[in-house]
Amino acid sequence: MLHNIPNKTYLTEAQLPDYWYNLRADMPPHAPFLNPGTGALLTPEEAMAVFCEESVRQEFNNTDRYISIPGAVMDYYRMYRPSPLQRAYALEKALDTPARIYYKFEGNNTSGSHKLNSAVPQAYFAKQQGLTTLTTETGAGQWGTALSMAAAYFGLKLRVYMVKVSAEQKPYRREIIRTFGAQVIASPSDTTAIGRKLLGEDPNSGGSLGCAISEAVEDAVTSENTRYVLGSVLDHVLLHQAIIGSEAKRAMELLEETPDIVIGCAGGGSNLGGIISEYMADKLQGKPAPYFIAVEPASCPSLTRGTYAYDFCDTGRVTPLAKMYTLGSGFRPSPIHAGGLRYHGMSPVLSKLYHDGQLDEARSYRQTDVFKAAKLFANAEGTLPAPESSHAIAAAIEEAVKCRESGQSKVILFNLTGTGYFDMLAYQQFNDGTLVDYVPTDEDIAAGVAGLKDIPGNK
Ligand SMILES: *Cc1c(COP(=O)(O)O)cnc(C)c1O
Prior knowledge:
Elements: E1 8-9, E2 19-21, H1 44-48, H2 53-59, E3 66-68, H3 71-80, E4 85-87, H4 89-95, E5 100-105, H5 116-128, E6 133-138, H6 142-154, E7 157-163, H7 164-169, H8 171-179, E8 183-187, H9 193-201, H10 209-222, E9 226-228, H11 235-254, E10 261-265, H12 270-284, E11 291-297, H13 302-305, E12 307-312, E13 321-326, H14 348-355, E14 361-365, H15 367-381, H16 387-406, E15 411-416, H17 424-432, H18 442-449
Parallel strand pairs: 5-15, 6-7, 6-9, 7-8, 10-11, 10-15, 11-14
Antiparallel strand pairs: 1-4, 2-3, 4-5, 12-13
The protein binds pyridoxal-5'-phosphate.
């Protein structure tokens, strides 16, 4: 071992944080959720008809800074956490940069991503409430996989509405979900009214995330002892993901390192909210803090080109209204391979932080550049990254190259959210040189947000 700082830093089990840090306790409240039908403030009781009670209590909790993690959840966390904090020595060398690059690797579990961090507590809360069944949607497949693992562990039934094109393109994701005992329903399906309506309009529809959400919600509210679970965007999901940042901060402190820059990719915002968590706390409390960068795909640029307004969280317009950066709930993101980043909106917490200038910067990359960064990273570090995570890699590389040019040795921390094992079709296209970029025109963006002015809360 030639380096004075270890390649990997793990906390011991005794050093694991046993709380979730609640960012909202330190920030001014974001605009409240609204009932999509009436435009009035959404009440916890209304939300509890759709979501698990404890998840809703957390969703409405703006005051408790630290929320203790239930023992049963800690038991599961200990099976795959802490996740390692890794020093990217080989990448630094490949880039010939004086920067010190660190990444938190969240892909070391069977679901292959950070999503398990929220799937476990949400399944546990359902079990505590005496529910028997959960429903959800999955696009790229990571969330469905994570929730199937958690549901199996706590003995719950699970129905996963999987976007039809995804179920066809990623059959092995589907099989993992089934192996964990969950039922996979290709969406649009004929088991819900909204699915039948969409199939009536277009029998060959490949589906969309928005449609799958609408089906899963309909299933939950019309079935006995059943609730719907969401894997990103909402405040309680960001809360659970705060474990990533709390662990990262403790591990960096063991190394006596302080990041100058913290980077995360941003789809619905949960992993970014996670990695920045306790570093953002410092900033909100007026202490020195890193520079925060959100990275999104150029094809689905909600923070960089969207509008800050109330919008639906789904295409079917059944979910509560949230004030967020959005491209419009009718925006159809192009079929890029970073499926986990193809979402029209952004977490209300991150949207507020970005609007207030606390989240310093958002930038976007085209997928061909993202895959170049993924290949460079994989070849140097020996880990095959998910396309979503590779957006953060691309930004880390860009910052490290700036350091080379300026001679500054900054400390860069990014979140490596997952592995790319199920994205080999994307890598195949990249290797064959057939991968193409999609960037919406200004007209596409304008068309997406045109309807926002008619939505309650924006009038
Ligand atoms: C879902 C997913 C993302 C994006 O979701 P966020 O809620 O924005 O974190 C990023 N990376 C991977 C591997 C994912 O599965």
